[in-house]
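Q: What would this complex look like in 3D?
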Amino acid sequence: MIRLFVSDTLEADVQIVPSRGQTHYLMNVMRLGVGDEVLLFNGRDGEWRARVAQASKRDCRLLVLVRERVQAVGPDLDLLVALVKRGRLETIVEKAAELGARRVRPVITERANADRANIARLAAIAIEAAEQTARMDAPEIFGVQSLESVLSGWSGVRRLMFCDEAGEAAPAAGALAGAASGPWSILIGPEGGFSPAERARIRALPGALPVSLGPRILRADTAAIAAMTLWQAVLGDWRGA
Amino acid sequence: MIRLFVSDTLEADVQIVPSRGQTHYLMNVMRLGVGDEVLLFNGRDGEWRARVAQASKRDCRLLVLVRERVQAVGPDLDLLVALVKRGRLETIVEKAAELGARRVRPVITERANADRANIARLAAIAIEAAEQTARMDAPEIFGVQSLESVLSGWSGVRRLMFCDEAGEAAPAAGALAGAASGPWSILIGPEGGFSPAERARIRALPGALPVSLGPRILRADTAAIAAMTLWQAVLGDWRGA
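A: Here is my prediction, written as structure tokens for the whole assembly.
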């Protein structure tokens, strides 16, 4: 069934007016009609079944019926990712939604491959990807910050999985297996890696866990996906019930 | 340094004529000149340093100098992947190269999202991605086969990591941790999943290990990357020296 993320409060008997893009999708792409059902979520109120109550080419109303699942959120996982080329950054956001990250925070590093990002577009990609998974929230996309502004004041309460492509670090799965769960961030560098000064800075942070992602050179999107996968498998919600 | 995959035999003092595409890349994109050096590999003879001996817009000769690394291949990992839409299949091939799969075998399943693939283009993508990792071979891309023709006669000598999105399977990392290394295949289904008959067929194979990739619905490319990552981390060459 089609799942849509909305910003409205969800409760029985309220009417929801989908956004213009959602209306186009429901009415003209999927060609739903009155009586067809969809699922709605907003990150707060769980997942609700709703019925198309009014349908025309440009106008659609959804009547919220019944809650199908109570709200649940995944583990507290941040993805800190250096600004890389637009297409790869968009892939990373899509995959962060599928792999259960709670936030994506683009950061500028010395060797970053870009100096800005279209946050609104990334947020839309995150929502669209979240709609296609079974999750009941969408990852929040932070505005671009410098790496230093993110790291300054890092207390260590949140652990940091530092994907250090310069080698020397322990294999990721084994290193994570010895660590505790709780709030974590994953840090992924740009295609050119971190500078020596950045590496030293990151490794000296409280709570930093440098890890290696195998013997081959990975593109930033591959590294991000691999790191989120290993984290979920070892410390996150892939461990099973 | 630039790395190029060539088909020629590599030994000291031979001259290599790069392909037309490689020549364009070296001469017009990277603007190399006589005396500049590159690395060459062919999947058989290790990695060799070579020097540009002749350079013009349309003509380039490379003189092979010295072997930098002896040939090594990664673990014997096959990726069996259902035909999905072209863009996602290309992503999967690129990532298979980065994540150290030895072969990619596109298969037609009941709910496959396509019925053919441009194998020559996929092979070119595999080579380009291999050039950008540190590996000394490129994944072989098999021609399209039906799932049944691949599974018939499956002896079980090669184990099969079956990514079963219908749930019920054990979490992948734990399941793999109890298994032996050796030759393995990973099987990834199409966006619509496997049919009940296919699932029963696969689960009954000798050597099949059904695994789950977490509680969210993953696109085929995400599932392929996650599965290869976990396999390399638990049974492959990400375990460290």
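A: To summarize the key features: The radius of gyration of chain A is 20 Å. DSSP finds seven helices and 13 strands in chain A.
Q: Very helpful, thank you.
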